[in-house]
Write the structure tokens for this entry.
Amino acid sequence: MKEKKDLSEQIESFTNKIAKPLSKFAAIPGVAAAIEGISANMNLIIIGGVFMILYVLSSAYATGTENAILPFLTPYGSNVSQVNSFTLGMIGLLASISIASKYAEKVKVDHTTSVVLSFVVFMILSNWGVVDGTLSTANFGSKGLIVAMFSSVLSIKVYKWFIDRKITIKLPASVPPAIANSFIALIPSFVIITFCWILRNLMNIDIVSVIYGLLGPVFDASETVPFAGLEGLLYSLFWSVGIHGGNMISPITQAVTNTFLSENAAALASGVSLTALPHWYNGARVGVTFINYWPLLIFMAFSKCKEFKVMAPAMIIPACFNITEPLFFGLPLILNPFLMIPYIITQVMTHLIFAVSAASGFIATKVAISVPWALPFPLQQLIGFSGDMKIFLVDILVLALCTLIWYPFWKAFEKKELEKEALLEIQ
Amino acid sequence: MKIVLVCMAGMSTSLLVENMKKYAEPEDRITAMSYTELEHTLEGEKVDVVLLGPQIKMHYDELKDICDRRNVKIAILAPVVYGRMDGAKAMEMAKTI
């Protein structure tokens, strides 16, 4: 018992060591703005996903079946690319607006002028301009996402630098604020835009390619089974001590998964079938963190220990919608020397099994839509994998293995609680 | 009293909010939201107490700064109070920060 306690204390101090710098990093205004800006566009990504679902239902080719799932939709299938182009196909461009918006709020500069400036900067960096009446959208999507994270924050930082040092054109107080702000923005905007123009046209630096060239391979290198296991490890390490794991690792995972998602969506919209999309990593994550604690919940519901039986419904019902805080903080699972270890083990194992299933092609369907996290996980998987039910076989395997892993630890924990209960009853 | 509970998405704390309302005065207003919305909310309305879900206690320092600037009291909910959705204890905490 003392051994178990020491181990849980070690885990706690270890995660605190990582959590402190990670959360300091996430609190840097530019980083927070990037995260919040990308998250703010989630509604559009989901809507893009809904249209994608309609496309998949309409297209026999996409699902690789003989007939479309809903043939009456087939005539409309080709038009779904319109919504996709403007949502998933533009996550970079949209991010240049939303990140700028969040950052302008944080550093308290004039919102309108700074957001529009960020948009213009992004366009200059990612485009040659209107050529023969057409505008290239190549960099509006995931390629531009990484650039948008930097350009939105940097352009506003420079903007603020000028304003703080009052290197601006000040109009008399009688001029309406909208016009006055526009003139205040004039000098900083001119400097920023000229710099970007020089970068692009005189120095011939295609910053999108440069940054994507540097960070792109890092993103692609993360599409591996070991990385999935690492994600599971970090996620569960944090949760095991009561820190929101998703919140801690999202700065890293969100950029990667959003990029993969939009590339998959672009491919799907351009006619690639669901089984031939470029990225499998997102598929390995659908429901991956919402499954491994279910054996624990079931054990609680059937436990001899009265307290667990009583608590079980209050934890199972929210857990059906993936709200796990009642279980984690209420049992508690967190900082519980008996339950931390099996939780971490089952989480890593689930991540690995899901990743292997996706990477090996057992689940051939790739995921191109963002599924709302609050749906019960089987439903998420049904939607995410466009009806490919092989994932349920994987679920059954995972649940069986998790049950085996939880059992001995659960029994030890239950025994201790039953002893406590018996003592209380004697008194 | 105007009480705001914050967590990741405002979902788990909204469960606690419902339980707290059972122990609150009729004029108390209790809401739940994501921690990212807090600053914006505090700019728009007068809030008395902010209670933080323990799973995001890493954000306590930055949220405390935001609250201190506006004379709003803030505290981290105790894990078991939060996990068991103990509305009575949470109300007590809000009153005694």
